[in-house]
Structure prediction request, 254 residues.
Amino acid sequence: MSGPLLEIDNLQISVADLQIVKGLSLTIAAGEVHAMMGPNGSGKSTLANTLLGHPRYTVTGGDVRFKGDSILGLRPDERSRLGLFLAMQYPTDVPGVSMINFLRRAMSARRGEEIPVKEYRKELNEVLGRLQMDESFVRRYVNDGFSGGEKKRAETLQLGLLNPELAIMDETDSGLDIDALRIVAEGINEFRSESNGILLITHYQRLLNYVRPDFVHVLADGQIVESGDFSLAERLEAEGYDPILERVAEGASA
Prediction:
């Protein structure tokens, strides 16, 4: 396709009359990996949830365009079928629904047609193998009784099977030990291609050591206050957010 995958134009978001995101603009093209970093409360998860249409968040200004068209009037399922994917910070437990059935239904909805069982099992086993996951994993109920690391690996399994055009990974590294982090990162890197885009939302550099971004952005008080390459993430790891936040505060008071 020509043109960017995602265009966020002066986006403003409120929750219960409290403005969280205050004029955020960002463009992601196919083949690009963007990392969004920032302290707690800066608006990172608010942005992620809003991009997928969570009803708790109200867009009070600006626009979000996916492949050239505004998506603000679309339901979450409609955005998903278009090719947007969100790996949630806190995946929801769904007792009584097995992973294997959930994944097949999700794949069929994404493709707009029923997937034959034989084809589905072939694709499922291929992705399970790449993620070093046993088939017994998908016989369990969705996230029910999963550890934090298992929930994040389940999200990466969905990513590999749904093959969206834009993946938004909201703190996928949260709660992962070193081995689980490496496996999840390998799944993201296998998904990465010239035909899709990725937005990684994280506090820390450690995920970015495995999934190296093309662009790094710092979000503070609902706005992108600095952008750069991977060296910006390295600087944040060494110095923390305080130097950037102090400069922003000084600029606001000048």
